[in-house]
Amino acid sequence: MRKELGIFLLLVFLCIVTTLKNPLFMSRDNLHNMAQLVGMYGIFSIGMGIVIITGGIDLSVGSAFALLGVLLALMLGQWHWPQVGAAVFIIAMGFALGCLHGFLITKVGLQAFIVTLCGLLFYRGMARFITHDSTPPGLSSGDAFQGLRTLATGDIASIPYQFIILIIIAAIMWVVLHRSIYGRYLFAVGRNEEAARYSGINSRRIIASAYMLSGVLVGISAILLAFYTPSISPSSHGNFFELYAIAAAVLGGCSLRGGEGSIIGILIGTVLLQVLQNLVVLLGIPSELDFAVTGSVILIGVMADQLIKARSARKKPVLAT
Amino acid sequence: MATPLLQMQGISKRFPGVIALNNVSLEIYPGEIVALIGENGAGKSTLMKILGGVHQPDEGQILIDGQPLVIKSVNDSIGAGIGFIHQELNVLDNLDVASNVYLGREPLMGGPLKLVDSRKMHNEAQVYLDRLGLGISSRTPLDKISIAQQQMVEIARTLSQKARLLIMDEPTSSLTLTETQRLLEVTKELRSQGVSIIYISHRLGEVTEIADRVVALRDGNNAGGLAREEISHDRMVRLMVGRDLERFYAPPPQGGEKKPILEVENLHTRRYPNRSVSFDVRQGEILGMAGLVGAGRSEVAQAIFGVEPPLSGTVVLSGIPLNIHTPQIAIKHGIYLIPEDRRKSGLVLDMAIRENVTLPALSRYSKFGLIERAAESTGSTKICETLNVKTPSVEVNVGNLSGGNQQKVVLAKWLSLDPKVLIFDEPTRGIDVGAKAEIYKLMRSLAENGVAVIMISSDMEEVLGESDRIAVMHEGAITGILEREAASEEAIMELAVGGAKPANSLASE
Question: Could you give the CA distance from residue A219 to residue A145 in angstroms, rounded to a whole number?
């Protein structure tokens, strides 16, 4: 927890400042709305964090949302698939995309950045092609698909389902990442793949599995997102979402060199990003500055983190003999 | 006699814990080839690094043309007319030949933009290429030419820097036989043009062919020299070795016949696909593997361990043939490797000692795939105490430990796993004397407990002091296996440089 303390304090500070300037920040509606967004963004940010921990990156997330989103809309709206079947298919598709990335990166030996950049372009293109670039009828209006809609946008005791799903996934992933053998392998491979291999770890399989896991989480978020957004425009649905995920993971202490990061950190990073978006609106900052504010706060956060790390490294004694 | 081009007088250099050079002197006259010989660690490279401006001597002085000169940096060295051809080539293979020759000194057009005068650069580079008889254009990209030609490009670079003294460090270690002959001819040609050459090589055949004089170093001291007519294979070997062994090795007990545990037959590694390696390791023995750097010993170890699976060959463990193509399989059968580069392959430096120790054996410290922190902690603490790892706790990052303690952590990874075969690759490199003795003792006690131990080492004393038998490798093949009684430094050196008559082995390649 100590590692995440800095970013947590930054979050608390921003919340206090925003509340003082505009008490609406703490209002029930605002918090509810933020919880929904945190829920959706948090799920795929955890996937991104795991990929980053192995020393990789996934740039294709946003385009995958577009492709999976239009597919879901078509399956439910035009092809009349059963809801469960459609949901399972979308998650399986996410998994399949993860498998493809893992295969290309570990077996073919391409760089993760390139593979997923191609994914970013390809999935977006496919989403636009299968819909002829027209927006399929949205999933958020009307009474159809009640089951999935409730799961994706409903509440329990006025806590949004998205948030509850995130908490469940985060809890599972916390155990997996911080308590299981597999999690230890993820960190070891991210820190020093060669040493991991010399210790008998099948490092390629571990790296590939991170993309598959991330793919499943992308599939789940794709469903939630498709029901949350009023319309799934093939050319803009999910744009930049991979960057939010990377930002959340990096803010939360994941190092792009690999081998570092935590679930708690990624969650705090996700919340921080949503608070920033929210604060731009509530404080009356021109919305054009939205990205600029987010960018500068991330920069400050990461710089502060670097400073703290450098200081604590200097204090640490190097053992003689 | 003429003034020497270079005089190094009474050079001493100490590093923490070691005296690398002790009052060493060296003189080079214009237009002569002097071979500098000595075992690994004899001080050859330290002496040359002083000449190259990488290290400063603690004592002694350097004279060029009889004038004292302080060489404080690489640039001082280049300015003094000294050129270096390193064993590892220093070229950028994404650039063309001329750009490599003039890297950092490109002729400019003049003017504020500092544009490179490409035509002038190519014309001038071509002059040096032609002088070396290298039949390639200065516009050839470096990745289109062979290693040997790249090396010539390096020589062209030093010539373009007006080098009068060329230091060649193991220049033929990655060349084929014909390329070697070509390089030797170029070297002689340079001599006739008045360039002096310090030629460092383990290959005594080459030395015999081209050296005007031999200077030998041993343990950081001048061990003597040989004039042209005195140069012979035997005399050089005698100069390089010959000293008393220290008594901190754990000698093997006298015992009866031991049965082989690990049998390796016709193993072909990727590095030396045309050489086959066969040997066995018997229960309870330490098999030393000697040879010069690059002889293919580590490749054999990596093939047996499965990190670089062999191209062909069989590995038989206790009579059962194994197909080891990944480290997981080797580990499952109790075959472990302590790799040569512990910081790169042996340890995850930013992880705690505890996490490193348990990494290959996590299933022992877990239930249902979940790690039991407490068991992990006690287990790793216990093994670290047994091995006397000096650390306040097992939560310390391995990167903060000293070399000796890091090596013990690598050992700790495997010792709790009931080893059958343990391969040590350069187990004591960069480790202080105290930790060395502990590692020797441990190796011996492992052997006595029935583990088959393979010890790859370039340290002659260590090989002789610690091994029951010694397999000597040369260029990917085992040139001989010596029993402890028959082993001597001379005998190992003979085999390490390619067998009894190195001239023949060169020819038969």
Answer: 18
